[in-house]
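JOB MANIFEST
job_type = single_chain_structure
chain_count = 1
residues = 391
[input]
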Amino acid sequence: MSQLKLHMQEALEALNQKGRLRTLKTIESDQGPVIVYKGKSYINFSSNNYLGLANHKKLMTASMKATQKYGTGSGASRLITGSMKLHEELEFALAQFKGTEAALVFNSGYHANIGLIPALMGKNDFIFSDELNHASLIDGCRLSQSRTKIYRHCDLNHLEKLLKKNTPGKKLIITDSVFSMDGDLAPLPELLSLCEKFDASLLVDEAHATGIFGKKGCGLVEHFGLNPRHERLIQMGTLGKALGSFGAYICGAELLRDFLINKSRAFIYTTSLPPGVLAASKAALECVIKMPTLRQSLWKNVAFVKNSLQNIIPATGWQMGRCESPIIPIIIGPDKATMRLSENLFQKGLWVTGIRPPTVAEGMSRLRITLMGTHTRQHLKKLIGALKENS
């Protein structure tokens, strides 16, 4: 056996011994509130399809029409022949939606973050990153080779202490707006104030806030009433969660867009998004703007589950997150207990994923409940009842 094969085999066996070997489960249906796996239906509490747009007729129709007109693929990178009219239309719509001068579309949230951060920051610069930031932000920091300082989760005092140290060079504070495993919110106004005080810029990852937060669904920047054209603010977000499509965006100044077109390797050296995806994303923005009832239904479901869980959790020994978003973590603690509870729910027809290290810290394994506006009250009651039985 070659050294490479031996390495892979030993690594997988080590994961298996720890009970942390991951495998895929293939879904046989769309990403609705009920999904099908091996011929059986499960109520889906693990999808980021928060507004139900991934299987909305308007998006599917737009995607099919664009595919019929422009074909299935873009054929090249944006700087060759892969920049289509649909790209520019979506980018204009995103800038209008987010209230910024310009926008640039990337192939995924991961691509956006590893393309943005290394383009902006280098070896002589300083990054200040929340300890619970998404892996794509962490990898972007690593690729930049900047001097990265990790501040305690949403701890403004700790962040300020780090900023006060003599730090020549550019400074960038990086945060998720809604944290993907805890569902809590970043203190964006205070972070922006620190940027002004210490001559730093702020990168906000709106992946789990776009389409959900704010009066118009623009995200947490809108929710807090911040100026989207603030010179120190850069917004990133995805098209594949609440917007139900695929890809990602970076919104900011026209100067930033021009800079990334020339300097972002993840933008330059990849085939661009296909026509069907671009058209679906633009249709999703229209749905978010014109159909506020999508968000209203989601937040009603969040309130119902939050109130119901508050009556259960105190007697269980579990911990519940702050429930500030459609992401509701129930922290069990040990890996095995978490996965056992997830399996018990699965046997009852409830798909609630157990999250364990390295995605979360040791001893912080949890059920990660994600809610959709298309969940019915009956779906939610079944979840609450099953949790009560297993508490």
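[summary]
The first helix runs from residue 3 to 17.
Residues 23-55+292-389 form a domain with the Aspartate Aminotransferase, domain 1 fold (CATH 3.90.1150.10).
exit_status = 0
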